[in-house]
Specification:
263 residues; alpha/beta; Beta-Lactamase; Transcription Regulator spoIIAA; 26% strand; coiled coil
């Protein structure tokens, strides 16, 4: 669908944001050529284009050049991204409440007409349904925590997407159950796909590491992105656990004493 949007509007990027209490977070994005918008990007609500969209009577923001737009030119996101052409509309959930925004942008000036705005609004309506469906499937998927066995006594847990309280509880219970039943020695927890929503670092990671340590299972963290590392610096409880962190799975296995061989 993102590809359709970028082709229809002749822009480089299309993305969806989710509105938190203090920030807007990019939960899905598509870049045709140059990577301009990355998933996981979070910006304070007051500094976003999204605020202008949501507060607009038309629930839309259409700018030929954001750098010259009276409302947008002073925003931090405008200078940080260096974009000009922009079209965004509100994205509602099934209850009619604001979920976030659907946006398209380009580093060149773009002229969007009423048909383009109607097109984006129709895409927003479709996405509202898909998001609701995806959330339902996503929550059902919580019952299947993706634990990947590596070798005897060693498993990996890739944490991806946004972790809410319900998902956190299921992850914690499932991992500890598997750790006990399989007599695990090491759990490699990969954070490369984790999305920090509304600037809140998931406390389940601290609880998980601490619980595993109490069970005599060593946790090793991989995939620490710059965004996650920024939050970890301020997370005193996690730092006090003295958990080992390495770049990737291969490094984690080498730390344990294994090596990956390719043929």
């Amino acid at each position: 669908m993102f590809s359709v949007i970028t082709q229809q509007l002749n822009v480089n990027s299309a993305y969806i944001t989710q509105k938190g209490s203090n920030a807007m977070t990019v939960i899905s994005s598509y870049n045709e050529d140059e990577v301009v918008i990355e998933e996981g990007l979070a910006v304070d609500y007051g500094d976003t284009f999204c605020r202008l969209i949501i507060n607009n009577e038309q629930a839309a923001l259409n700018a030929v050049n954001l750098q010259k737009d009276e409302l947008a030119k002073e925003l931090e996101a405008t200078s940080a991204l260096g974009v000009k052409g922009f079209l965004g509309v509100s994205l509602l959930d099934s209850n009619g409440e604001v979920f976030g925004t659907l946006c398209a942008l380009d580093k060149e000036e773009k002229h969007f007409d009423d048909k383009d705005i109607e097109f984006m609004k129709s895409m927003s309506e479709v996405l509202s349904y898909l998001i609701e469906l995806d959330q339902t499937q996503y929550h059902m998927g919580f019952l299947n925590v993706p634990i990947i066995p590596i070798t005897k006594g060693v498993s990996a847990l890739p944490l991806q997407g946004v972790i809410d309280e319900k998902r956190a509880q299921i992850i914690l219970e499932t991992v500890l159950k598997v750790g006990a039943e399989k007599q695990m020695t090491y759990f490699i927890i990969d954070l490369s796909g984790l999305i920090i929503l509304d600037d809140h670092f998931p406390t389940v990671l601290t609880q998980l590491v601490q619980s595993l340590q109490l069970m005599g299972i060593e946790a090793i963290i991989t995939g620490m992105t710059p965004e996650i590392a920024k939050h970890e610096v301020g997370n005193v409880s996690l730092r006090n656990l003295n958990v080992k962190t390495v770049a990737d799975l291969e490094s984690a296995l080498e730390l344990i004493g294994f090596q990956l061989h390719t043929t």
